[in-house]
Amino acid sequence: MAAKGPLAGVRVLDFGWAWAGPYGCTLLAFLGAEVIKIEGHRRPDYSRRMSMTTGQAFDNLDQSTVFNDMNLNKLGLAVDLTRPRGVALVKDLVSISDVVMGNMRPGTMEKLGLGYEELRRIKPDIIMCWSSAAGGTGPYRGYVGYAPTFALLGGISHLTRYPDTPPTLLSGSIDARSGTTFGLAALLALNYRLRTGQGQFVDLSSTEAIAVFSGHAILDYAMNGRIEGPIGNEDEAMAPHNVYPCKDADTWITIAVATEEEWRQLVQALGDPAWAQDDRFADGYGRWSHRQELDRHLEAWTRQRTDYEAMAALQGAGVAAVPSLDNRKLYEDPHTRSREVFTRLRHPAIGERIVMGPPWKLATTPAQVIRPAPLLGQHTGYVLQELLGLPEPAAEELRAEGVVYEPEVAVPPA
After folding, report:
1. Pairing state of beta strands 99-102 and 11-15?
2. Hey, CA dihedral for 166, 167, 171, 176, is it positive or negative?
3. What is the C-alpha separation between 223 and 72, in angstroms, rounded?
4. Residue 2 pLDDT greater than 70, yes or no
5. Both 108 and 196 in a single domain?
6. Into how many domains does the chain fold?
7. φ/ψ of residue 131, rounded to 5
8. Which end of the chain is more exposed for a tag (fewer CB within 10 A), N or C?
9. Pick from 286, 302, 324: which residue ends a domain?
10. Could you tell me where the beta strands, DSSP code E, fall in 118-270?
């Protein structure tokens, strides 16, 4: 039997869509919250149909690997929120829940009769966390956006590109960052309620969640009128600071040197080459001013070694260096294996999957993966009868009228 996590006893209603919202709720599910994914069976989560990042389409609504990865540990309720009885059912569920979360356009829940003021009337200490492209107030509140939009408006697409390339099209990793902020916001609200007994409405802008990574550039413009340009993998002060090709095709290693001590350690690891005694590299400013020449010397060294050979030599000398790993190498990496970053999990529709586990290690209340993402409507019966206490005839009536959906063979919660 799985150990209880730190959020055991907390119930979250997840109206999330695509990646950012669902991932934030999944983080809470990792911590032991009972997270109920609420979808319309006529309008299910978009990621059940296809992946916007890869363009991959899926054969049916229960075979999406992307949906599974973003919705681990959750239960699934399929309910038609265009029907008054569907809305009434959700209101009953709100009355026994702690947090309501979602990431659709501002005003969506109000149109359904499920806005914060209505939810607070039902349960005064309810927490509602809502994420949208640019937040629920201000001139951009109506903007619809996905990860590339957040990255562009937040400035990070401009800063992370190379000087001679267009802005970087960032997608999935941006959703994960926004979703992480989203999950943290819910944790903070739960902590506040624990101390005060009060719920609250949290209005999150995904663009602002990403703009924090551009904070230095925003302040530089606000205070000095300077517009920072892209620097690729370089740094504004450190040198060397770049990604260097290794012996095998398309393998790379990152190297960063921040102090004089680290520079001496790097030179020692390289075998005290004569070029390192050049007066141009005598101090940090000189190395930065001549960083292109410095990079050429380092590249000549890294090209003679595999990425892991270079890492071992440099880390052994106290230099920050790590390979740039693709998906397979991440899975096979000794460190990620030791930290149990990945785990295997069997999904009833797509079979065994390798998924990323929780990003934390907790000693007595472990965060853990306990079940795959739900099939569409998989736990509708559990919600209706065990949580809401509806007798079977009433539940069957809701199914017959199409207010709720449940697959013919339902799998009970793990």
Report:
1. parallel
2. positive
3. 44
4. no
5. yes
6. 2
7. -115, 135
8. N
9. 324
10. 127-132, 200-205, 241-245, 252-256
On whether residue 220 sits in a domain, the answer given is no
Residues 344 and 297 in one domain: no
Tell me the CATH number at 205: 3.40.50.10540
pLDDT at 136 over 60: yes
Residue 149 belongs to some domain of the structure: yes
Tokens 């363009």 sit on residue = 55
Contact call for residues 324 and 243 (beta carbons, < 8 A): yes
Structure token digits, residue 21:
């919202």
User: Residue 267 domain-assigned?
Assistant: yes
Domain range holding 299? 241-324
Alpha-carbon distances, residue 42 vs 39, 79, 151, 158 (angstroms): 9, 9, 31, 39
Amino acid letter, 94: V
| Active site positions, annotated | 175
Q: Omega of the bond prior to 240 within 30 degrees of 0, cis?
A: yes
Query: In residues, how long is the chain?
Result: 414
Binning pLDDT at 50, 70 and 90, where does residue 412 land? very low
**Whole-model pTM?**
0.91
> Do residues 247 and 352 share a domain?
no
Q: Which of 379, 412, 358 is nearest to 26 (CA)?
A: 358
Give pLDDT tens digits for 13-47: 999 998 899 999 999 999 999 999 999 988 899 89
Q: Residue 142: pLDDT band by 50, 70, 90 thresholds?
A: confident
149 with 180, same domain: the answer is yes
> Are 54 and 156 contained in the same domain?
yes
